[in-house]
Amino acid sequence: MGSSQTIDMMRMGGILTGMVKQGRIELHSHTLYSDGELLPSELAQRAAICDHAAIAMTDHADASNLGDLIERLRRFVAQQPADWPLHVLVGVELTHVAPGSIAKLARQAKRLGAEWVVVHGETIVEPVAAGTNRAAIECPEVDLLAHPGFITLEEARLAAERGMIVEITGRKGHCLTNGHVAQTCREAGALMVVDTDTHAYNNLITLDEARQVALGAGLTAAEAEAAVVTTPQAVVQRILLRRHTHSA
Ligand SMILES: [Zn+2]
Ligand SMILES: [Zn+2]
User: Fold this and answer.
1) Which of 1, 84, 101, 107 has a Cα at 20 to 30 A from 141?
2) Ligand nearest to the Cα of 58, by number
3) Of 102, 13, 106, 115, nearest to 55 (Cα)?
4) What's the pTM?
5) Can you tell me the distance from the alpha carbon of 94 to that of 185, in angstroms, rounded to the nearest whole number?
6) How high is the mean pLDDT in each 10-residue block of the chain (248 residues)?
7) pLDDT for the residue numbered 42
8) Which residues pair with 61 in a beta bridge?
9) Tell me, what's the pLDDT at 7?
10) What's the 93 CA to ligand 1 centre distance in angstroms?
11) Spatial distance between the Cα atoms of 191 and 104, rounded to a whole number of angstroms
12) Do 144 and 119 contact (CB within 8 A), yes or no?
C-alpha cells in the first residue's frame, strides 16, 4: 500500500471516528479575495494556531466573481498537505445578490465545486434587499443563512423544516439582533451555529469565546454546545465524507 493510500485511509478513519471533533470550527470567513485582510494561507495558519479544526472560507460573491473565487480556493485546498491538521472548506457568501438570483447562483456555486454556500442575510446594519432571508431559506443549495437580522418566525420555521442552519454572529453590527435570532430559531426549532465572519486575524475566536457569544445571545448551555460544537462538527464531517467519496 502506497503512503498516500495510507494517509487517505487514516484520514477517512479519522473522519469516521470523529477526529474532526477537536477544536473550533469556523463556517464564515473572508480573505483578501473579497474584503478580508489575509491570504488563504495566512488565514488558515492563524486559524490552526488558534486551535481550529476547520474553517470555511466564504468570500463575498455575486455573478461577477463566483467562478474565480471557487477556482482559487479549490487550488488552495488541493495543495494542502494530507497530514495538515486544519480542514479548509471551499465556500462563498452570496452578498447583496437580488433575491430572485440567489437560487441560480447557489446552484452554480455548487456545480463549480463550492462545498458550503452562505447567504448574506438581512442584517439591520446594511441595506440588504427584503426577501433575501426567504430566498436563501427556500433554496436547497444554500447551507447557511448568515446574520439574518429580524428573521421572522415563519422564516425560521421554514428553515427548521428544510434543515437550513441560521447564524449567531460574533461580528460587530450584525450581532445586534443575535438575541432575536436565537429566540426565534429556538421557538421554530431551527439549527444554529456561532460564526465570527472573520475579516482579520484578530476576529478569530476560541471555542470558549464562541460559547460566550452563544450564551450572550440567550442560548442555554446545551443549545450553545449544539451551536458551537455538535452542529458544526456534523457539517464538516458531511463535507469531508463527500469530498473523500468524490475523490476516491
Ligand atoms: Zn455577510
Ligand atoms: Zn461575511
Assistant:
1) 84
2) 2
3) 115
4) 0.92
5) 22
6) 46 52 92 98 96 97 98 96 90 98 98 98 98 98 98 98 97 96 98 98 97 98 98 96 84
7) 97
8) 94
9) 47
10) 7
11) 24
12) yes
Angle, CA of 45, 36 and 243, to the nearest 5° = 55
* CA distances from residue 185 to 128, 194, 210, 217 in whole angstroms, order as listed: 20, 13, 18, 11
Interval between CA 119 and ligand 1 midpoint (Å): 7
From the CA of 10, how far away is ligand 1's center (Å)? Answer: 35
Going from the Cα of 219 to the center of ligand 2, the distance in angstroms, rounded, reads 22
Helix (H) or strand (E) holding 61, with range, is strand 52-61
19: its cell numbers: 477526529
What is the pLDDT at residue 230? 96
Dist. CA 105–CA 94, nearest whole Å:
8
Give CA–CA dist 41/242, Å, rounded: 23
| CA pair distance 141, 111, nearest whole angstrom | 10
- The grid coordinates listed for 248 are 476516491
Domains and CATH numbers, the chain: 23-247 (3.20.20.140)
If we measure between CA atoms, which residue out of 117, 161, 116, 122 comes closest to residue 138?
161
Q: What gap in Å lies between CA 8 and CA 83, rounded to an integer?
A: 9
**Residue 136, pLDDT score:** 98
